[in-house]
């Protein structure tokens, strides 16, 4: 099915939604993720977010509970030096992105604690604790039982390998056994898009080495953002055929 027809059918499905069930009127938080930065500044706080004028707003609470959705390395430049950061995307009362330096005590402690798990599909509580000078320690707890995740401190561990293992645990497609599983997952992410539209879109994907999984996740995520923003068909970006089941 041509992309234009797929977009038109999605648009029709969106127009038939009951706005009252999807839109909450009044003041609310913006839909964009809230970035949280880790930094121990004496007498001020251990983590903060930036206001629109780049002013630091310190967070008095010492813990955040939510489900980790993504772990991603990002590169940033500061005073002509390249810095390597770890972004932890957390789904909570809203989406937060917790940013910390890769290689900091906080980052190492967090990764070691998460590495004791075999799954990242349940809520966790990530807490900050002060250390000497500018050091911040990470404490991780089971979100339901409140029990701490205890890990041996290994400052020389292979943290790149640990991160790679954790990122693999976050790859939803690893549990899929067939295209039907991929479609079923897409339905949970896009409940307002007709199933037959998703099926036809999946069929249109070009397989790499006989597989479509990775590209399907990327396609569904892009479409989910578009639908969430309520964009009209003409505002949809051109979908690229990328790698993938």
Shape: globular
* CA-CA gap between termini: 20 Å
Radius of gyration: 21 Å
Instruction: Provide a count of the helices.
Output: 7
In short:
The chain is of the alpha+beta class.
Could you explain how this protein is built, in words?
- With 245 residues, the chain is an alpha+beta fold.
- The chain has two domains: 84 residues, no CATH class; 137 residues, no CATH class.
- It contains seven helices and eight strands.
- The protein has an eight-stranded mixed β-sheet.
- Helix 3 packs across helix 4 and helix 5 runs parallel beside helix 7.
- The longest helix has 17 residues.
- The protein starts with a helix and ends in a 16-residue tail after the last helix.
- The C terminus is likely disordered.
Summarize this structure as a short list of keywords or feature phrases.
alpha+beta; eight-stranded mixed β-sheet
Topology:
Elements (H helix, E strand, L loop, with lengths): L2 H13 L3 H4 L11 E8 L3 E6 L5 E3 L4 E16 L2 E11 L3 E7 L3 H10 L9 E7 L5 E7 L16 H11 L9 H11 L5 H10 L8 H17 L16
Parallel strand pairs: 1-6
Antiparallel strand pairs: 1-2, 2-3, 4-5, 4-7, 5-6, 7-8
């Amino acid at each position: 099915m041509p992309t234009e027809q797929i977009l038109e059918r999605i648009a029709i499905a969106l127009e038939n939604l009951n706005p009252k069930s999807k839109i909450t009127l009044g003041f609310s938080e913006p839909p964009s993720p809230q970035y949280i930065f880790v930094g121990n500044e004496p007498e001020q706080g251990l983590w903060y977010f930036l206001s629109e004028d780049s002013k630091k707003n310190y967070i008095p609470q010492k813990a955040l509970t939510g489900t980790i959705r993504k772990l991603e390395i990002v590169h940033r430049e500061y005073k002509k030096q390249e810095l390597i950061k770890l972004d932890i995307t957390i789904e909570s009362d809203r989406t937060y992105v917790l940013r910390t330096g890769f290689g900091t005590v906080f980052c190492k402690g967090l990764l070691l604690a998460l590495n004791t798990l075999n799954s990242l599909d349940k809520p966790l509580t990530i807490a900050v604790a002060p250390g000497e000078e500018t050091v911040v320690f990470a404490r991780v707890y089971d979100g339901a039982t409140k029990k701490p995740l205890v890990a041996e401190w290994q400052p020389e561990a292979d943290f790149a390998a640990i991160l790679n293992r954790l990122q693999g645990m976050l790859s939803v497609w690893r549990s899929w056994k067939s295209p039907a599983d991929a479609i079923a997952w897409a339905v949970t992410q896009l409940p307002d898009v007709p199933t037959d539209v998703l099926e036809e879109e999946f069929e249109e994907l070009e397989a790499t080495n006989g597989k479509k999984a990775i590209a399907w996740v990327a396609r569904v995520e892009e479409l989910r953002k578009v639908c969430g923003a309520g964009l009209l068909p003409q505002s949809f970006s051109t979908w690229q055929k990328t790698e993938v089941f």
